[in-house]
Amino acid sequence: MAHALSTDNGSSSKFDRIVADLHETGFSICDGFVSPLQVSNMALEAKKQYKKGAFRHARVGRGASMQLRPEIRNDRVLWLDSEKPGAALLPYFLDLETLRKEINRNLYMGLFEFEGHFALYPPGASYDIHFDRFIGTMERVVTCILYLNDNWQPDEGGALKVYEGTEPSNLPLPMEVIPQGGRLVTFISELFPHEVLPARRDRLSLTGWFRIRS
Ligand SMILES: O=C(O)CCC(=O)C(=O)O
Ligand SMILES: [Fe+2]
């Protein structure tokens, strides 16, 4: 569905826009954060790894309590090495580094690293409503989701549905965001519960988090 947020880049840089959105509402949608050519390079890389069997069923929780809970989430993920992202992912990881520094410079968040994975949701797969920030930890502060889907149609499902959290928000919540290629969704992890609705086709993304030291 259409959302009420502006997604164009205007005259300021994409980084400035995201920082301003995070400051104002805690939530940002940036279309064309990554060019179509880059999206297709990244999607090809993900699909190559998927065919090689490198993806694993996603787990929920962390540390000793990490477990397979397909009734909560049933996507497949491949964790990425942000030190050695490889040629297809390098431009995006460099942009993430710029974004991390801009957020720190303007919002004093002290973000020190990015951890992320490719995620592939086969048709019908979903992820129930959740917060990205684990209870009792300080680590995951900002969520960044880049969609890698070519020509996604609204009637194919697979929206990211974002809800109001404990803090009141002036965003039009709940809101559904279509996973269209090149679109980057960035938000303050502890503010917004969210879910992934089932789709009719494979749904591919690169999801990750800027963390602070725990
Ligand atoms: O892919 C999305 O739109 C959201 C994924 C998500 O919520 C997560 O991996 O924590
Ligand atoms: Fe999430």
From TrEMBL:
Coiled coil: none annotated. PROSITE patterns: FE2OG_OXY. Its cofactor is L-ascorbate. It holds the Pfam family 2OG-FeII_Oxy_3. Residues 107-212 form the Fe2OG dioxygenase domain. Keywords: Dioxygenase, Iron, Metal-binding, Oxidoreductase, Vitamin C. GO terms for molecular function: ferrous iron binding; L-ascorbic acid binding; peptidyl-proline dioxygenase activity. GO terms for biological process: cellular response to hypoxia. This is SM-20-related protein.
